[in-house]
Amino acid sequence: MTSYNTSGKIPVPDTRIQYIRAGDEPAIFKAKWVIKDPWTLLENAGIAVAGGRITAVLDSVPSGPSVTDCGPGILMPPLVNAHMHLELSALADRLPLGKGFEPWVAALLKERDSIGIPGLARAARRAIDAFPGQGTGLVGEISTLGITRSLLSDRGMAGVWFHEYLGTGHPDLTLSADRPLSVSAAGHAPHTTSPDLLGFLKDRTQQRGLVFSLHVAESDAEMAFMAGNNRQWHDFLVQRGIDPSDWPVGNNNTPVMYLNDLGVLGPGTLAVHLLQVTALDLDLLADTRTRICLCPRSNQNLHGRIPDIPALLKRHLAPALGTDSLASCGSLSLFDEMRFVRQHYPVVSPADILAMATKNGALALGMADRFGTLDPEKQSEFIYLDSGASSRDQVLEKVTCHGTD
């Protein structure tokens, strides 16, 4: 379990997690257990690396000076936090939870402005520095203010930095497919971002082969607005300088149906949350091969409900996991998120949960060529987890329930 000291949500390192970034020289790392992918578990195995890439996963490990014995625990892929808001890290424990989405948003905007850019940046930097100790190697970061791109780049983090837009207009976009940190665009949500802007952002990111992200079907406020029954949210947008009067809402479409009509869904779109969806919505997401990311702990805290993961898995939608922000969640640890899923979804297998935090996340961010599994040609980065697993049956359970013992 990730713990914090008393000076404002600064994570205390979990000494059982070691993040390994292998160098360019040929080397082998071995352990009692190696999780190549959620469905391939090897005993007394190793990972051979060279030139920054995995060259082989070894069923048996030769002896030699280039071999590092990590110990009796587990070597596994780095975790993927496919959706977070680092620039809200300074808002930890400062916002009302469980009192409705609209009061939370209003308080967020007020608190964020009162803290200011320097304070937001300091807290975001602390959160990034904690990633290795949480096993996180790949991120999907959503930034409205634009302050976290350089912070991630300075730390050599891999992933996608999404510059988020809401309202109307066609902004000047800076997009990049460069690695390790790609730069893409996100629309905030269908109830805050005009249909024209959503289409513009999706089109420009698709042209560059980048993932486009947006929040979908998260709150009661969104559902009511999309159905044409939330004048309060309409007025809130107008107060923020956004006039939604000509948006095609109010025809009883769900947010998913609305986005499908706009042509925004598809394999290049990452739909986040999907807390309130119908069977037809799920069919549309499956038919369009839209990518999915879920943030169950944040959903529970903000909305008092959690997504229907079994229904998503039944349709082979391969959901990824994210933590959202410290403004709505107790930590940015994917181990904490996996443990929550294991506790609240007993019918979901540990293998499927681990896939959500590794393979599915890499696929969702368009980074499956480098992360997600320990296959050859993937990045030579992995986690060693001192788990105490003494049998094959315990390994995935120890990973997905890490922090309960």
CATH T-level fold name of the largest domain: TIM Barrel
Report the radius of gyration as a whole number of Å.
Answer: 21 Å
Number of domain units:
2
CATH superfamily of the largest domain: Metal-dependent hydrolases
* CATH hierarchy class name of the largest domain: Alpha Beta
**What would the principal axes of the Cα set say about the shape?**
globular
Measured by DSSP, the beta-strand proportion falls in 15-25%
Number of strands: 17
Biggest sheet record: 7 strands, mixed
What's the rounded overall pLDDT mean? 93
Distance between the termini: 9 Å
Helix content: 25-40%
Question: What is the name of the CATH architecture of the largest domain?
Answer: Alpha-Beta Barrel
Instruction: Outline the low-pLDDT stretches.
Output: 1-8
Number of helices: 14
Task: Give a verbal description of the structure.
This protein is α/β, with parallel strands linked by helices and 405 residues long. The chain has two domains: 17-77 and 374-386, Urease, subunit C, domain 1 (Roll), CATH 2.30.40.10; 79-364, Metal-dependent hydrolases (TIM Barrel, Alpha-Beta Barrel), CATH 3.20.20. 33% of the residues lie in helices and 23% in strands. It contains 14 helices and 17 strands. Helix 8 links the parallel strand 14 and strand 15. Helix 11 (334-344) packs antiparallel against helix 12 and helix 12 crosses helix 14 (392-400). The longest helix has 29 residues, at 101-129.
